[in-house]
Amino acid sequence: MSIVGTRVVRVEDGTLITKGGTYVEDLRHEALTGAVHATFVRSPVAHARITSIDTSEALQAPGVVAVYTAADIDLAPGQAGPVAQPWLADGVVRYVGEPVALVLTEQRYQLADAAELVDVDYDPLEAVASIDAALADETLLFPDLGSNVAQVTGGEFDEHAFDDCEVVVTETIVNQRVAPAPLEVRGAALAWGEDDRLTVWLSTQNPQLARTIIALGLGVGEERIRIVTPDVGGGFGAKIGSDPEPVVLGWAARRAGRPVRWTETRSENLTAMTHGRAQQNTVTIGGRRDGTVLAFRLEVVQDAGAYPRTLFLPTLTELMASGVYHFPRVETSSKGVVTNTTPISAYRGAGRPEATAAIERAMDLFAAEIGRDPAEVRRTNFIRPEEFPYQTPTGASYDTGEYAAALDRVLEAGGYHQLRAEQARRREAGEPVALGLGLAAYVEITGGDGGGESGRVDVNPDGSLTAYTGASPHGQGLGTSLMMLLSDQFGIPLERITVRHGDTDEVPTGVGTFGSRSLQLGGSAVRRAAETVIERARALAAEMLEASPDDVVLDTDRGAWHVRGAPSSATVGWADVAARAGDGELSEDVWYDEGTPTFPFGAHLAVVEVDTLTGKVVLRRIVALDDAGPVVNPLAFEGQRHGGLGQGAAQALLEVMSYDSDGNPTTATLADYSFISATELPDFELLHMATPTTRNALGVKGIGEAATIGSTPAVHNAVVDALAHLGVRHLDMPATPLRVWQAINDARKAD
Amino acid sequence: MIPAQFRYQRANTVEEALAALAEHGDEAKPLAGGHSLLPLMKLRLAAPEVLVDLAPLDELRFVRLDGDTVRIGALTRHHDLHGDGVLREHAPLLAHVAGEVGDQQVRHRGTIGGSLVHADPAADLAAALLACDGTLVARGPRGEREIPATEFFLGPFTTPLEPDELLTEVRLPRQTGRGWAFEKFTRRAIDWAIVGVAVCGQSVGLVNMAGTPLRASATERALASGAPIAEAAELAAEGTSPVDEPHATAEYRRHLARVLTARALEAAAA
After folding, report:
1. What is the pLDDT of residues B231-249, one digit of tens each?
2. Burial bucket for residue B58 (CB in 10 Å: 0-12, 13-18, 19+)
3. Residue A265 and residue B5: Cβ atoms within 8 Å?
């Protein structure tokens, strides 16, 4: 029986949950002997001119090795979209948390005392602390740009687009800013070697990309940079590549002539690591009273934060605008604006959750307006199975989907009709605790970046196997999945397979882990390499068995070759084949670039109870079907769904990174920033469906972000649904008790 | 997240602790469970020069019944209060509330005395003690004094304790026959209360409805004059001055106080 598709406990877990992983901060490496410790002095104000920086007192503090400011740095500034981003603030600060100076000390405990003594004078400027303030263009973050709008796409709408609609609904929906808050904050350790190469131990999702970014920043060739990822404690998109800090640290290590270690604090992480989401989306949806949608328009405004380095987010939202629906007319536009807030970057889903949230709220608004059940309206408009591959009006090419089947399975498993009856009963009885049902049907894009991935497989002399991947797992359990695939192909047990990744000297090419790409691209690369190695081994085994290659077969139960039809006769094991192989003959390194984007999909039903007297929402159930094609390891697959469901529900109910009108973050500690815990979550009810794709060697799609994408609008819709009978039509996320209570009051007043 | 430099001094007896506090005055801070003080120090919002560690003072860890008075050592941890048989029998409200503080980690380190002297208006135990007519016992160079809970909370993070005084004990009358309930309203289980209501008989203590914990006096008077619960609870926000915050406006807190008071009174009466 194949190990693929069985529940295998992740090989990564033993260490992680017993003695703990080895993260950047834990490293004990000879090259780091004598390292100095680093911290960044960060701006406490959102927008100001720096009138002076006095480092003299800090330089006298115990243990201080150096204090650097922009004036010291002789590197060309980095680029964030259309604007330059200085490595340390140069004359102006543009968000609370922007690095202003770098302090190096002999001992780590000396950092905070010394940093306090760096005396920076700020002359405050008006802060642009919201999308509306940015669009007003009264205060400009980058006067040379002439506007706070850093990017514009589309917007030439057909004024007759909704002319034939019986009903048109429009709403502006805030997809609020959230903090990634990975368990491991950012960190790096850096050492220049005698060979004039810089080794950077970095907490990143993409070592090879980080190498490119850091080399570019330092103005050196990539061959002079080596990136090594120790264990990485989560990234959620915010550890893609490298932030500016490691470039400054690499520069400082050279200038100070010492290795450097840096780990940010948790408080620092909440404002200095990039944030996610931060869109304001206006939806207009129109159609017939029978539930048919005829036209949909999505106008995206992306708050890009102070340095707009990730302007692909709003366009990815546009690409996925029409979701799982066959709409005759779809129009989109986007603007990316800069504000005096922490820069925005990828965060679990990165552009797709925003699209799904917009269309799924729009479908509920439309259904409510025509007085039809939201499940029925969705079913009326789904893309049908026979329409695949389906070319969307916005330019996506969906591979495979069974959207109606997914929704029906969820409705049945959830007891949707009984729940609706219970909801009606409570409303009839005037009970204070209302029941809300929320649906989301979603499709997303994985491996959407268009890049490839590397994979190498070596059969070792002892018959064991070593694989190298350009993917960079950091908590997902991808290593176990790759081992399972290899074990299945080679007949070699898991304990004799090693998967290596994350050292750019060992794996020089690779793209890394983001966008749920790693199994479909990294797994396919390893699959292709394995196929080549096995075919070479077949030839060798055939020689040893004195048979034609066509007549030998690999028994993957035993990991042995034998002549076809004679399994009990002579066999040749992997060590035997390896002994006969020439140097490198049983090693293959491939670059897999045949994969094209895949489109996982699913349906979620969320059930909430809302205390209409206090506004408190309790999430009672989530019934989720997430179809990402064939599953390699159901245990890891479900783990990704659990995490995704929790994170998605958290955005709907709890999480928001808030700023006051002066650009001061008001949720900058974990006491104020409400991440979700197990206590706030129900046991998840997971349904299984596996629709394969033909777009990669494994026929799989990505699961890393799917559940996050579906659960946010499902939970959000459930809260609004619970309040529908009170006249509430929409409220923005997160659905905090105060917001819910206010929405009820506002509806009552409007009535 | 590294505190400013401080000196660490370990007290092996209450007398040693008092001597250390007398020596260093307001430059010193006693350290109990550390769950309020240490975060403040790490954020550098507090920077005491001397920390007097009370950890060895087992003499301040007890719960006992003394006649009709329940006596609790100031260093008794929330977890121990929650599980204490004497407390559960004779002061069930306080035992219950101790189990609602923070999370498991906090309850295994935090102490009742530490919580009370910190005088955070959002603290659960302070309001519960108020509702229970508790008193607090302090020792200092001028001897021992007993302060009613109604006179202990002077303002946010402010108490009548002098820098050289140490809270040693908490006392409250046996709760015999008085119904009780605690309604804590939070977004997440581990959060501070947005509003909390502790009811003991016809006494009502409010969490986070002013700069100090306070009693819902108007509600109590209405109950005493025979008003039905619904009517009395409508008065719960009278005399309060809750803080106005983006995630919980003052108006919302007053509303919650009324709703939660009604629920707590109903539960206590049941």
Report:
1. 999 999 999 999 999 889 9
2. exposed
3. no
Numbers of helices and strands, H then E, in chain B: 12, 12
**C-alpha to C-alpha distances, A494 to A7, A247, A487, B84, nearest whole angstrom:** 13, 39, 6, 50
Contact between A322 and A392 under an 8 Å Cβ cutoff? The reply is yes
A674–B187 C-beta distance less than 8 A? yes
Give the pairing type, strands A465-469 and A601-611: unpaired
Last residue of a domain, one of A592, A622, A655: A592
Q: Which of B188, B247, B256 sits opposite A677 (nearest CB)?
A: B188
Region B58-173: CATH code: 3.30.465.10
**Contact at CB, A741 and B255, closer than 8 angstroms:** yes
Q: How confident is the model at residue A197 (pLDDT cuts 50, 70, 90)?
A: very high
Q: Give the β-pairing of A465-469 and A497-500.
A: parallel
Per-residue confidence (pLDDT) for residue A519, from 0 to 100: 97
Is residue B152 within 8 angstroms of chain A, CB to CB?
Answer: no
Preceding peptide of A308 cis, ω within 30°? no
Cα A565 to chain center, whole Å?
Answer: 49
* Contact status, residue B12 vs residue B58, Cβ threshold 8 Å: no
Question: What count of residues does chain B have?
Answer: 270
Q: B182-269, what's its fold?
A: Enolase-like; domain 1 (3.30.390)
Q: Nearest by CB to A679, from B189, B248, B259: name it.
A: B189
Residue A145: inside a domain: no
Q: Is residue A513 part of a domain?
A: yes
Give A226's strand partners: A199
For A85, the domain range is 34-125
Structure tokens at A607: 């059930």
- B248 contacts in chain A (CB < 8 Å): 738
Under 8 Å between Cβ of A339 and A128: yes
| A473, A513 Cβ separation under 8 angstroms | yes
Reported as type and span, the H/E element at residue A622 is strand A617-627
β-partners of residue A589 are: A456
- The mean predicted confidence, pLDDT, of chain A is 97
Residues A606 and A569 in one domain: no
Same domain, yes or no: A381 and A511: no
Cβ within 8 Å, pair A738-B185: no
CATH number at residue A59: 3.90.1170.50
Q: Out of B191, B246, B256, whose CB is closest to A666?
A: B246
Chain segment A461-484, per-residue pLDDT in tens: 999 999 999 999 999 999 999 999
Q: How far apart are CA A133 and CA A150, in angstroms?
A: 14
3-state secondary structure of A173: strand
Q: How far apart are the C-alpha atoms of B206 and B240, rounded to whole Å?
A: 9
Q: Are A207 and A504 in contact (CB under 8 A)?
A: yes
| CB-based contact, B45 to chain A, within 8 Å | no
User: CA dist A402 to A329, A405, A601, A710, Å?
Assistant: 22, 5, 8, 15
ipTM of model over 0.85? yes
Query: Backbone dihedral region of A351: left (phi > 0), alpha (psi from -120 to 50 degrees) or beta?
Result: left
Q: How sure is the predictor about A652, in pLDDT bands with cuts at 50, 70 and 90?
A: very high
Cβ contacts of residue A177 below 8 Å, gap of 6+? A275, A276, A277, A278, A303, A341, A344, A656, A657, A658
Considering only the beta carbons, identify the residue of A108, A676, A738 that sits closest to B252. Answer: A738
Q: Given CB atoms, is B259 within the 8 Å cutoff of chain A?
A: yes
Q: What is the CATH number of domain B7-53?
A: 3.30.43.10
Residue-range domain boundaries for chain B: 7-53, 58-173, 182-269
